[in-house]
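== Polypeptide entry ==
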Amino acid sequence: MDEDGTQLGVFLIKDAVRVARERGKDLVEIAPKADPPVCKVIDFGKFKYEQQKREKVQKKNQHVSVVKEIRFHPNTDTHDFDFKTKHAVNFLEEGNKVKAVVAFKGREMAYTEQGEALLGEFLERIQDIAKIESPIKMEGRNMSVIVIPQKIKGKKNK
């Protein structure tokens, strides 16, 4: 195959190298595992440059998902709850996942229903901008829920 994509046919390696040299180009193996292997007659420097440009664009368009954690206790006061919920909303608007955790210490383990109610209230407050990725569950002494941002029309998540 040459630079503009036209098929040149099946060649022996020495013939393919000769064709490439006649045109002042390089013979580049594109698909080594194919039978027979696929090669292109192109300028190798230009090929590498184009490949680097494509990789750079892909890397730029890639979004790395970050999980932000908000910690509560079963007896978290309303002001603290509001403040932490506001932070969670900001994190979700930035496009991050949020893990809300209720940490139980000592005898607080007897009040797991309070923690569940707290996380229920948290989910209710952010339901318009987030959706649940994993439901409320106990992990040792912590009860957690993970939420992800909802895609909003007209607004692009980063």
Remarks:
- The longest strand covers residues 130-139.
